[in-house]
Amino acid sequence: MNIHDNISEFMENINGAINGSISKDWLLPKRSIVIDISFIILALVITVSNVKCVYKIGKSFRKYKSNTFYSAARLLMTLLVVVNTSFLILISSIIVPSQLVGYWIGGIYTCNTVGVLIEIWTNFVTLLATIISLERYLAIKKPFRYNNLCSPWKIKLLLIFILIISSLVGILSLFLNRFALIAYVPVCQIVIDNVHDINSLEYATLWLDMSCFIPCCGILLLTTMEVLLELKQMSVRVRNLSVIPLPLSQYGHNRDLRQTKRLARIVIMITVLHLLCWIPQRICTYIQRLSGIDQASYVFYSHVSVITKMLDMLVVPLAIFWSQQKCISKKRRSRIGKSLPLVPP
């Protein structure tokens, strides 16, 4: 009961300061021009890379539109890219005007809105990456049951379900402990006293995050390992059959097999990059919520979390670029091998 009274009293003081006049606590700290330019360049790189990524996925989708074995993975990757780009544009449209005028437009309400949106986006992207990994796992390990397990209407229902779950987690985090969400926005933390006793609401929001973090992390790791092992076994089987001359009817099958392996490697790369960006985000958030750190350390962990979140928006373009470079280098090596003169024994 005391916790709710303290929160209500704090909110009344903040709202009174906002309604009366623009409090100096809500003035945004001045940042260097280098930081602003770096943020703008990174945001432009993310947007352009994701737009090019959507074009490349759409081009390959038209090329293989008759094959439903790859359409679900491409549609899910396209959705991931579109969600990342839309989220970046939405957050920028909220933060940039406040940065231009020099104070937070809307005060604590703007900070809470940004925090909830970041929480929803983080959970939705994590669950979507898990679905992409599971989809490729079923395509590799259960090919004969794939069309039944990954039918379009089931995937649509699953996407609606994870959107509802992500929204509920974000809204519950706001009602349980709205100040924990401000940890996501570095410039919002200038009004928060971070040195305080950990209460039950902070533990509740922590367990709410871990309920999404731990299962998804385990599923991503297990499916990635299983797909890697299956790809290695497929490579061994293909290598053993390569010494036998195949009829013309088998070349199409080999082309589909190469496409399956390539798409699986892209999904594995997306999973690995997502985990490399996602785990530091959660660690920084847990340190902020459960450690009595000073203001400078608190803001430092927030900036680390923001940078990793922005890098997380580049996982699909980086994975596709890595796959293309690998294919180009493989074709170059095969051309060099064919151009070498045959040396008689």
Automatic annotation (TrEMBL):
Chief location: membrane
Highest taxon of the lineage: Eukaryota
Q: Which GO terms describe its molecular function?
A: G protein-coupled peptide receptor activity
Q: Which residues cross the membrane?
A: 33-55, 75-95, 101-134, 155-176, 206-229, 263-281, 301-323
- Keyword line: Cell membrane, G-protein coupled receptor, Membrane, Receptor, Transducer, Transmembrane, Transmembrane helix
Q: Which residues form the signal peptide?
A: none
> What biological-process terms (Gene Ontology) are attached?
neuropeptide signaling pathway
What PROSITE patterns does this protein's entry cite? G_PROTEIN_RECEP_F1_2
- GO CC annotations on file: plasma membrane
**What are the G-protein coupled receptors family 1 profile domain coordinates in residue numbering?**
49-320
Note the InterPro entries from the entry.
GPCR_Rhodpsn (IPR000276), GPCR_Rhodpsn_7TM (IPR017452)
From the Swiss-Prot or TrEMBL record, state where the protein is found.
Answer: Cell membrane
* Membrane topology category: Multi-pass membrane protein
- Its protein name is G-protein coupled receptors family 1 profile domain-containing protein
Q: What is the lineage of its organism?
A: Eukaryota, Metazoa, Placozoa, Uniplacotomia, Trichoplacea
